[in-house]
Amino acid sequence: MPRDRRAPPGMSALSALQTAAGAASVACFLVWGTLPAAAESEVNVYSGRQEFLIRPLLDNFTAETGIRVNVVSAKADALLERLRREGVNSPADVLLTVDAGRLIRAKQAGVLQGVESAALRAAIPAQYRDPEGFWYGLSVRARPIMYAKGRVSPAELSTYEDLANPKWKGRICVRSSSSVYNLSMLAAMIARLGVAETEAWAKALVANFARSPQGGDRDQIRAVAAGECDLALANTYYLAGLAASPKARDRAAAAGVAIFWPNQDGRGVHVNVSGAGVTASARHKENAVRLIEFLASDRAQRTYAEVVQEYPVTPGIEVSGTVAEWGAFKADSLPLATLAQYNAEAIRIADRVDWR
């Protein structure tokens, strides 16, 4: 990131179906399946992000444009599989998801279409969007090293590569390699270091694990705070979420952990994006493009920063106060679309080094 801080109302019919069916995703699917393709005042979103995080953004879009946003929220991988199954009959106009790895998978699966938008090209740096317009990053997340205050001195830390040092044996917590966050990080390392060096690093990293991978990023942070390990790799917004949690134990965990920005004298910190693409089946393509353009606007980017605690993808937007306290850092400038070339090899490396 730059080294400064800048970096619908609900449908009554839908509600009734939700009550009758007992599942929001099923209800949304049934309603959408009967909607006329000619409806112009709406846009249908499949979202791999928790709705409470993005609902303020979507409501602002509706207030500004009059376009109603219908949302199906589910796990990102399940949504991709659903889009594959539905094919040209899918009611979805927009796929909203996290990590360039998932966006790349969606493009490769043929469920997205390329769109041209001067507004999106102007707002979003080239490294955070697909060069053919199949997907656009909307917020940036960093994946630095997190360490236990009092047990680790930042002077002991330097690079991701140094996590392979035997001095960290039994001291590192990381989630499973099946996490797209870790696979994308491995793919980025392959792009920068090559297959052999990345595999040697991954093998040594696994040898330094304090425990078998388990849980999500929040669990790795909690494990560091609890003394199960001294270091973790995790996305920064999870730390911000713990710090703002209503649970005292989560706030205490966040207070016991600090961030170290690795590789500042080299390629920089590994970063990724949340993002969106227009589906190949979009019946409301114009509205879909307008929604993605809105999410890249200054107004929406400020919401991403202040509410979601992520880094804005567009230059010139201030980060939140919490995020600003972590300090500025140099980010890896690797174009995220490049990860497509290395994702399969990243999976093979994880398998070969027994990173479960």
Q: In percent, how much strand structure appears in the residues?
A: 5-15%
* SSE order, one letter for each helix or strand: HHEHEHEHEHEEEHHHEHHEEHHEHH
Low-confidence stretches: 1-38
C-alpha termini separation: 31 Å
Helix content: 40-55%
Structural class: alpha/beta
The biggest beta sheet reads: 7 strands, mixed
Care to count the β-strands?
11
- Total helices: the number is 15
Provide a short characterization of the protein structure.
The chain contains 15 helices and 11 strands.
Summarize the structure in words.
With 356 residues, the protein is of the alpha/beta class. The protein has 15 helices and eleven strands. Strands 1, 2, 3, 4, 5, 10 and 11 form a seven-stranded mixed beta sheet that branches. Helix 3 links the parallel strand 1 and strand 2. Helix 1 crosses helix 2 and helix 8 crosses helix 15. It starts with 11 loop residues before the first helix and ends with a helix.
Keywords:
356 residues, seven-stranded mixed beta sheet, 15 helices, 11 strands, 14% strand
What secondary-structure arrangement, pairings included, does this model have?
Layout lengths: L11 H10 L2 H10 L8 E6 L3 H15 L2 E6 L2 H11 L7 E5 L1 H9 L3 E2 L4 H6 L12 E7 L2 E4 L23 E2 L6 H14 L1 H13 L9 H10 L4 E3 L2 H8 L4 H8 L1 E4 L10 E9 L5 H11 L2 H11 L2 E2 L8 H4 L18 H10 L4
Parallel strand pairs: 1-2, 1-3, 7-8
Antiparallel strand pairs: 3-10, 4-10, 5-10, 5-11, 6-8, 6-9
Helix pairs in contact: 1-2, 3-13, 7-8, 7-15, 8-15, 9-11, 10-11
